[in-house]
Design goal:
Elements lengths: L14 E4 L5 E5 L9 E7 L4 E8 L3 E8 L2 E5 L2 E5 L4 E4 L5 E4 L6 E8 L4 H11 L6 H10 L2 E4 L2 H8 L10
Antiparallel strand pairs: 1-2, 2-3, 3-10, 4-9, 4-11, 5-8, 5-10, 6-7, 6-9
Length: 169
């Protein structure tokens, strides 16, 4: 850290990237870490699917459960994690996550290397459309080297008692 590097990022420095059942709030940008990692808070509404099955080609993600319970499928493992638990979602391993409860949950997402956090800002514009533009979503995922499996949405929603997802509507 150099003397001109910001040492503290307060709540007023945060930027909302994505609004909806899954939110994304940028807490620590890539510029603060030399691109090594970024921190994103994900509030997740009750009984909501955060993401369909997807695979990152370039990033590892670590999700610290700050509030509530999060359900996840990482590879073939289906788990529920409570406050203080860390979900490990390595690049190259398909995963999905959801809120299985009737109370909100919050995750602190550590993304390494940084850069993928920008995806959420672009995703916000696509999900704001009714219905979402599936071709635009595919193009966005391609630019971020993300392999999405939208066909997993109905299975995840039914299996875990969720309220749906924008891609299923």
């Amino acid at each position: 850290m150099t003397s001109d590097t910001q040492a503290v990022f307060s709540p007023t420095d945060r930027k909302t990237l994505l609004e909806g059942p899954l939110g994304a709030i940028l807490m620590l940008p890539a510029s603060a870490t030399g691109g090594r990692l970024s921190l994103v808070e994900h509030p997740l509404a009750p009984r909501s699917l955060g993401s369909p099955m997807h695979t990152h080609r370039d990033e590892d993600e670590y999700s610290v459960v700050l509030e509530g319970v999060v359900g996840a499928q990482v590879g073939d493992q289906v788990v529920e994690a409570g406050v203080g638990a860390v979900l490990v979602k390595p690049r190259g391993v398909p995963h999905a996550f959801w809120n299985p409860r009737d109370e909100p949950c919050r995750l602190l997402e550590i993304i390494s290397p940084a850069g993928f956090e920008d995806y959420f800002g672009e995703l916000n514009a696509i999900l704001a459309q009714t219905p979402p533009d599936v071709a635009a979503l595919g193009e966005l995922a391609g630019r971020y080297r993300l392999d999405l499996d939208p066909t997993s949405v109905p299975r995840l929603v039914e299996r875990h008692g969720l309220r749906g997802h924008a891609l299923a509507e």
